Amino acid sequence: MIFSRELSILNVMEPIVSNIFEDHFVKAGILTCACEKCQIDIVLLALNHLPPRYTSSQAGEAYIKATYQEPQLQSDVLRELAKAVKVIEERPNH
Q1: Among 47, 52, 60, 74, which one has the highest count of C-beta atoms within 10 angstroms of its own C-beta?
Q2: Do residues 78 and 24 make contact, with C-beta atoms less than 8 angstroms apart?
Q3: Which residues pair with 10 in a beta bridge?
Q4: What is the pTM of this model?
């Protein structure tokens, strides 16, 4: 299957997880190692344990982001990020 360049596929979980990670971990200064490699590894590990939310439109992106304003869904993201922080801090990949 070939996709046109006019449409793009986006996993909306990527910016959601990145923003929550930035707000709750990076800005708070609670990471043992805040290097770019560790930060990316943490976000990727968390994303691998969360369900993807794909869309190809701005309306779909807005809907998914609005859904993740619910406290339970934000809690799920924070839980996976906290687990990922622990794993990466115990075994950094650098």
Answers
A1: 47
A2: yes
A3: 55
A4: 0.87
**11 phi and psi angles, rounded to 5 deg:** -90, 105
Give strand ranges (E) for 3-87. Answer: 10-11, 54-55
Q: How many CB atoms lie within 10 A of CB 12?
A: 19
C-alpha to C-alpha distance for 28 and 37, rounded to whole angstroms: 18
Angle between helices 36-48 and 13-21 in degrees, nearest 10: 130
Q: Is 29 left (phi over 0), alpha (psi -120 to 50) or beta?
A: left
Residue whose token pair is 């990727």: 44
Place of tokens 């046109």: 4
Using CA atoms, how far apart are residues 20 and 74, in angstroms rounded to an integer? 8
Q: Report residue 87 CA to chain centroid gap.
A: 16
Cα 68 to Cα 75: distance, rounded to the nearest angstrom: 10
pLDDT tens per residue across span 69-91: 999 999 999 999 999 999 999 99
